[in-house]
Amino acid sequence: xxxxxxxxxxxxxxxxxxxxxIEALIVLLVAGMALMLVFAIGGQSARTGFALGRRALGAAxxxxxxxxxxxxxxDLTPTPIGVDPAALGLAPFIGDAAGFEGDAVLDRAGACxxx
Length: 115
Prior knowledge:
This protein is mostly helical. The protein is built from 1 helix and 4 strands; from the N terminus they run H-E-E-E-E.
């Protein structure tokens, strides 16, 4: 018996299964575009999250700094009223709304020195 090899008729599906080269390239292109969108959105979200975190840390640092300054000022003991600072070898305590200066004693140990 002689075996015959049948060639496919035009219009019939090919007996081969799988993707053609063009189909595989299109699938890779679509997957690449989807990944590009995911990474772009994720990158923007990360930048936004980091910016919010930096702002929160900045606000927390400002609060800590203000608390430390208030505590430092609260613990300062200037020369008592009625006592001449020059007689004690101290500079007079002077200042305005922008700042102040003078000799004082810190009632507790701090960054400026010992108590």
